[in-house]
From TrEMBL:
One of its GO terms (cellular component) is cytosol. GO terms for molecular function: aspartate kinase activity; ATP binding. It catalyses: L-aspartate + ATP = 4-phospho-L-aspartate + ADP. This is Aspartokinase. InterPro entries: AceGlu_kinase-like_sf (IPR036393), ACT-like_dom_sf (IPR045865), ACT_Aspartokinase (IPR054352), ACT_dom (IPR002912), Asp/Glu/Uridylate_kinase (IPR001048), Asp_kinase (IPR001341), Aspartate_kinase_CS (IPR018042). Pfam families: AA_kinase, ACT_9. SUPFAM superfamilies: ACT-like, Carbamate kinase-like. The gene is hom3. Its EC number is 2.7.2.4. GO terms for biological process: 'de novo' L-methionine biosynthetic process; homoserine biosynthetic process; threonine biosynthetic process. It comes from Schizosaccharomyces japonicus (strain yFS275 / FY16936) (Fission yeast). The keyword rRNA-binding does not apply. Belongs to the aspartokinase family.
Amino acid sequence: MSVLNNTEKKLRNDPSKRWVVQKFGGTSVGKFPLKIANDVAKASMEKNQVALVCSARSSDTKADGTTSRLLRAVAATIKSRTQSLGALVKEIEDDHVGAANKFISNEEIREKLIKDIRDDCAALEQYLNALRIVSETSPRSCDVCIGVGERLSCRFMAAVLNDQGIEAEMVSMEEIIDESIDWKALDASFYSYIANQLVSKVCEIGDKVPVVTGFFGLVPGSIISQIGRGYTDLCAALLAVGLKADELQIWKEVDGIFTADPRKVPNARLLALITPEEAAELTYYGSEVIHPFTMSQVISARIPIRIKNVDNPSGAGTIIFPDTISRHGSATPPHPPKIMPEEARQELMGKTATAVTIKTDVMVLNIQSNRKAASHGFLASIFAILDKYKLIVDLITTSEVHVSMALHEESENGNFHDAFVELRRLGTLDVMHGMAILSLVGKYMRNMVGISGRMFSALAQAQVNIEMISQGASEINISCVVDEKNAAKALVCVHEEFLGKPSSLHVVPSQASLLVEKPWLYSS
Ligand SMILES: Nc1ncnc2c1ncn2[C@@H]1O[C@H](COP(=O)(O)OP(=O)(O)O)[C@@H](O)[C@H]1O
Ligand SMILES: N[C@@H](CC(=O)OP(=O)(O)O)C(=O)O
């Protein structure tokens, strides 16, 4: 740990350089703050101006992280009125003060940080107590509390950067949304407004390195319900768009996107390149790699996204970029597309699948119509009930009188019990718990004949029974529902069938440095 006198000359952003936006998840901030400062931010400042965007701190898992604690504290104001709110806030305060003591050497920086943490936590406790007194929490008041998580995390990271010799400042985005504007929808104009607001706040601190709160204000309808957990990815994307950054980097604790979850499939391979469509499908179906709203913002501005590992910063990572358009600043669309060497493009066109993923905690609902309505009325009634109870369907198959749907058991706002009562009025309802959705993802699978056949034969050979099958006409994703007990076996056997052999689209060690220094993605 470098011990730097606070008055020594510190590193600043060089305004003549182009921007790179670097987003860090809560567990990365929790585990690797010094690596973020030295191996990532400081190293990148040789070539670029950097802006950091951070999520709320988690010392271990996201479920034990600050955002989850804040959500529990908000719930406790109403649901468990005897629980001490002070104790819940104290856990958050102790966690951050502990990190300040552990990672910050300079006394002045550390003491100022600890004071700010204590002040923020005292204000939070007062706010929570006020919610308890009025016995009312709204989505807005919940957001106000959640925002404290990113504020604490960014105060901490800015202090770490300063302690390590980088002139940095937290930039809070908690108040960037003008609440007097009546936003009818979170559409393109809303996102472009946010991008502009983010940039003007960042510009206020001149050439200091901005450490931006991933929480970006009181989003109409609430950030959790409108955007969901993982909103920091979207904030980073919008900042990258606003700054016309060269690249958006999402720093994680995994080397990039693999052909399958490397924790579950030991021989999974790191992908050099993946299209935004494929990355979005993987995220929806269990591989939480990047918030799905992030892609469209950045890709339409032709900014590549790179997934990298904080614990292995020299690794190549995975680039998310469309295979049909050129990057920011070059002619678009090129003919033929020149974003990758011809042999890699040929391989991409000829490959069968890109990755396989599994989503657990799924339930299947089977509804058999009681034939009191015509089939279109039957479907319309089902969708109206799902909409009323905010239930999100992951897969659906239908015949005229029979509908099967797969839903995630932990649907954040869903009220299953009441929805089931209403669905039973339409016909017979069977509910199967303990299921999993297995999805084979690949944009070019549609060029191939017999992919589904191979997938289901592989599952049959592994003695995995299939409960439900779904394949859209776009064929980017072939999914089926299996018993959760067979999930691991199913994932491994489908990976072996389609992705068991290495391909030139997987990162091999000799390619890694080449990709970092001069990615073929960018060659003309
Ligand atoms: N196809 C995949 N490629 C890479 N990681 C995957 C994939 N599917 C699931 N994962 C898992 O997603 C997790 C994401 O990384 P992590 O940095 O821990 O998340 P976060 O930044 O959201 O805290 C990893 O633990 C990894 O095992
Ligand atoms: N802190 C928020 C936002 C976020 O983006 O998280 P992460 O980057 O750690 O996925 C959450 O827990 O949802």
